[in-house]
Amino acid sequence: MTALPSLWPLAGIAIVVAGFAVRANPLAVVVAAAFGSGLGAGMAVPEIIAALGKAFHQNRYVSVPWLLLPVIGLMERGGLSEAARALIERTRSATASRILLIYLAFRQITAALGLTQIAGHAQSVRPLLAPMVEAAAVRDDPALDDDGRNKVKAMAAATDNVGIFFGEDIFLAIASILLIKAFLESAGILVEPLQLSVWAIPTALAAFAAHGFRLWRMGRRP
Amino acid sequence: MIGLPQLYALTGLVFAGWALATLLDRGHGARLRGSAFWALIALEFLAGDSFSDFHNGLIVLALVGLALAGAPGKGHPATSSDAQRAASLAIHGNRLFLPALIVPSVALAGTFLFPRLAGLVDPKQVTLISLGLGAIIAVATLLVWLRPPAGAAVQEGRRLAEGVGWAMILPQLLASLGMIFGLAGVGEIVGALAPLAIPDGSRLAAVLAFTGGMAIFTMLMGNAFAAFPVMMGGIGLPILVVGMGGDPVVIGAVGMLAGFCGTLLSPMAANFNIVPAALLNLPDRYAVIRAQWPTAVVLWLFNTVLIWGFAFR
């Protein structure tokens, strides 16, 4: 058995866990964790700052989708959320739980076809889905308080996540499938993306069943 | 060729617009700090290439410092009143839904068309370029159709950006932390420790250690992609595949999905869990995680059973 490596670089992980547990500002937690792991690995402070700067610079693409905020803001200015609410108030059969069930299926199927960018928290949940389910929930239960409304809106965001996570891996060319293929290839095991994506189907069906059941129950509670 | 540089320039200009609008907003409680926050992000996008790594690092520290001091804060971005929105709805009706289709349609068209137009668009960045192009077309369409006052695109974007607040830079900062963890060798250490948690010869314990390790390490890193090589290299390949003769296809594919269950539980996955809570103005930062944890736990169990039952036939 080989000797254990030094555990000090794990300091950053301990800081992350403690930081989120006490609900410290996540930005401060992340910077503290970067310094914790960096110092633990024997890096000097200027070295850590430079590594942080380099990584932040390289990861700019993560922030590019904020480009959509002006689009969504302009649509809201024109009354998009009000239009979504009006539509739902007219359509009594569209309950919060049915809307979310349909959205879950839509998100899983489109993600399985590789269309992950056509919906999302900024693109669809904030301007359309959340106002719709909120309007439906309030229409069906006029006594619903703020807490109840927030729970329904959080469920809208959760449904988007579940839909994309457990739909996208059925698509052959998604990053996670390519990562698995590349990792196995580096270990001398050749697999086709299709073999991998087929094994995403059982969990996709289970996700629709499990989350769908929770949505259905949400609709049955008074 | 259109690629990331042009897209970054566009993003930088959007942030610069918010910096200027905040500076001019006299009703803003933290006007200078808020303006500096957006301006530093704009600087990073527009000119970050010409700075050293160390100077970019100082910009990161300054951004975090400003955020702790209350940036970006909330001002009074001009927007329409409830009455104006109702009037607009009365005029335009359900046609208001049509602009919401522009960004998805352009994303769809770009995904299929751009790879055929050799040399026009960087083939590795088709998705992001389509997103940027969709944003430009949608803003132009909305400005022409609804004729809002000048500057509305900037003000409406700022209204949403202030709503999200400092969480705007959290996903990018978390991705950076993942790289620091990589430099510090966190993955190798976890990969060396993980096999020690497994009693010899127990298949169920080994599968549990693998799927549990995927979920927990994904929670810590905020990203299943970071956890996969560590857990697959530490447990999946040497113990489940080589040691116990498991099918690498099932173990790899379903193991990744067990990691996704961890993503649903982690505040480190800010894009999916923290940012939407901010976008929807939910008072509880962890509200989305609270809404999805039962689904995540059930699916984690399902994935564990799937590997245990089908990878060793």
What does this structure look like?
- The complex is a heterodimer of chains A (222) and B (313).
- Helix content of chain A is 71%, strand content 0%.
- Chain A has 222 residues and is an all-alpha fold.
- In chain A, helix 4 (69-77) packs parallel to helix 7 and helix 6 runs antiparallel to helix 7.
- Chain A is globular.
- Chain B has 313 residues and is mostly helical.
- In chain B, 71% of the residues lie in helices and 0% in strands.
- Chain B is built from 14 helices and no strands.
- In chain B, helix 10 packs antiparallel against helix 11 (224-243).
- Chain B starts with a helix and ends with a helix.
Task: Estimate the helix proportion of chain A, in percent.
Answer: over 70%
Q: Count of DSSP helices of chain B?
A: 14
**Total helical elements of chain A:** 11
Supply the helix-strand structural class of chain B: mainly alpha
Topology:
The complex is a heterodimer of chains A (222) and B (313).
Chain A: H1 11-21, H2 26-40, H3 45-58, H4 69-77, H5 80-90, H6 96-112, H7 121-140, H8 146-168, H9 175-186, H10 193-198, H11 201-220
Helix pairs in contact in A: 1-2, 2-3, 4-7, 5-7, 6-7, 6-8, 6-11, 7-8, 8-11
Chain B: H1 4-23, H2 31-47, H3 53-68, H4 82-92, H5 102-113, H6 126-146, H7 152-164, H8 170-184, H9 186-193, H10 203-221, H11 224-243, H12 248-263, H13 270-279, H14 287-310
Helix pairs in contact in B: 1-2, 1-7, 2-3, 5-6, 9-11, 10-11, 10-12, 10-14, 11-12, 12-14
What key attributes describe this structure?
heterodimer, A: 222 residues, mainly alpha, 2 domains, 71% helix, B: 313 residues, 14 helices, elongated
In brief, what are we looking at here?
The complex is a heterodimer of chains A (222) and B (313). By secondary structure, chain A is mainly α.
